[in-house]
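Chapter review: from sequence to fold.
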Amino acid sequence: MVITVGAVIVLTSCGYGSTTSVDTTSPSVTSAQPVTTAAQARPPLDGVPGSDGAAARRARDVYLGMWHQLTIAAASSNQHASGLSMYTTGSALTELRQLLYTDSMAGKVVLGKPAPNPRIAAVRIPEVPLEVDILDCVDTSSWRKYKARDGQADAARSDRLLVTATARNGEGDWKIATLALREVDSC
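The token string follows.
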């Protein structure tokens, strides 16, 4: 039996604002207030059924961890950076390593910091493993390619990356399993 929980999210703009973080602290409890768990106190992340659950939070954390490790690896175009495999697997890991390899062979590095702002597109629970689909419009205006040899900035490119990713739970270990990156002018 397959159970699918999901929704379609329509992006109207990449101007989500700054990267949001999820408050993981427990609410304070006084004798005048009813006891509320942290999960009950937080609104759903993106209005998608299941997006306020532990699976969606863990998927988002893994996705942001992937971007952090990619930023570190891209600064030296190191496709063998061990941090990537902590957050990605399968075709997603292959995709990132290929991007880094291509930059390395071209003598380029990527410096600065991207600004991901992931949205949960769907939480799927077909059986084990659980899967969470993520949609993002990453602001890359502060994350630019340079020639490693002379520091010359690469030709102008788009300031946005449209990203779709799937995080998968493999025996309690969440990783990004699929990843598609596409340069766009806006999203």
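Two observations follow directly from the output. Confidence is low (pLDDT under 50) at residues 1-44. The chain has one domain: 45-184.
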